[in-house]
Specification:
The chain is an alpha/beta fold. It contains 14 helices and eight strands.
Length: 348
């Protein structure tokens, strides 16, 4: 029996050391990443977390070291005692872990509670808040207007219900608006000489081969082969896109996994050159939007994705991190990234 007690004691000591080591590592990592969710758990009273795995591990350990005849009465009794000892060891480790975090990171737990209150207050204070945005180094409408002539067939692809197209001062008589929401676009473009249409049921452009002189794609997905198909020889394709660096500081809230690859002016130009386009020009802008309060940032996020604010508890680590940056630097900054590529279909 002393043999098993010694093994169980060693098991309990090892388990406790591992738990406290993990507590130190995890606590430091949570502090570094402003993970207030982690610290908020330890502001509450300890509650035992049942773990079926500890029973299985304890039973496996006993079977590995047991000197008794398997399935004998004494073997079963010792197995139950060993498992009970493992459960007790786990409970002791859990309690030790909880109160170690509570004492070792007491300041962090207090700060987490304060940050949570400030985030909740900012959620309630949403409204018209000021933000500062850098001025883009290119104007899409001014640049593309130079390529639009009255004797041309023009197609403008967008997903904003005609908003982008409506900002042109003049458009050729034969201009098509290829819209995701044609009904909204027709209402927005009423009175303009623009024919509103949409992609076909197969997701193709609604034009015959080599029908269009200029295609402008504004901030939406596109099929480069479809663009090539519908353009006349020497026709222009103008791509205005959001780059992969855009809003990179908040992208994890919207995409829970890291997207590989880079989407920028150079990458776009390469894809067009590879299928037979000549590159005419390109512009790229990396700027910023600055928020001097968390309420301003929340208002901005709400305009993009309301559920990210309504369910703010799920993203409270991000908002707490932003709040800390505002306190430290006076503002929280989002990166903006967009680019414009102008290409011409070769006359072959």
């Amino acid at each position: 029996m002393d043999y098993y007690i010694e093994i169980l004691s060693s098991f309990m000591l090892l388990f406790l050391i591992m738990k406290l080591s993990f507590a130190e590592v995890e606590g430091r990592q949570a502090r570094k990443n402003h993970n207030i969710k982690y610290f908020m758990k330890y502001a509450e009273k300890y509650a035992y977390q049942k773990q079926t795995s500890i029973i299985l591990v304890s039973a496996l350990c006993y079977m590995m070291v047991s000197l008794r005849e398997i399935f004998s009465t004494i073997w079963l009794l010792e197995l139950l005692g060993f498992v009970a000892g493992g459960v007790v060891a786990n409970a002791v480790a859990q309690v030790s872990y909880h109160y170690y975090i509570h004492v070792r990171f007491k300041k962090d737990i207090k700060e987490a509670a304060e940050l949570k209150k400030e985030v909740e207050l900012a959620v309630q204070e949403q409204g018209e808040q000021l933000m500062q945005q850098s001025i883009p180094n290119y104007d899409t409408h001014a640049i593309t207007q130079e390529y639009l002539h009255d004797d041309q067939h023009v197609a403008i692809v967008s997903v904003d219900g005609g908003e982008f197209i409506s900002q042109y001062q003049h458009l050729p008589p034969i201009t098509y608006a290829v819209e995701l929401n044609p009904a909204k676009a027709e209402e927005k473009l009423e009175g303009r000489q623009v024919k509103v249409t949409s992609l076909t049921s197969q997701g193709k452009m609604p034009f015959k081969d080599e029908k269009i002189d200029v295609v402008i794609n504004e901030m939406c997905n596109y099929d480069k082969f479809e663009m090539y198909r519908i353009l006349k020889p020497n026709g222009y394709l103008i791509i205005d896109q959001v780059g992969s660096e855009n809003y990179k500081e908040i992208i994890n809230m919207f995409i829970p996994f890291r997207v590989k690859g880079k989407w920028d002016k150079e990458a776009c130009q390469t894809t067009l050159k590879d299928i037979g386009f000549d590159l005419i020009n390109g512009f790229e802008d990396i700027g910023h939007i600055r928020f001097d309060s968390l309420a301003a940032l929340l208002s901005f996020v709400k305009s993009i994705s309301p559920e990210r604010v309504e369910k703010y508890e799920q993203f409270i680590n991000f908002y707490a991190d932003a709040l800390i940056k505002i306190k430290q630097k006076g503002f929280f900054e989002l990166t903006t990234h967009r680019f414009l590529v102008i290409a011409r279909k070769k006359n072959v």
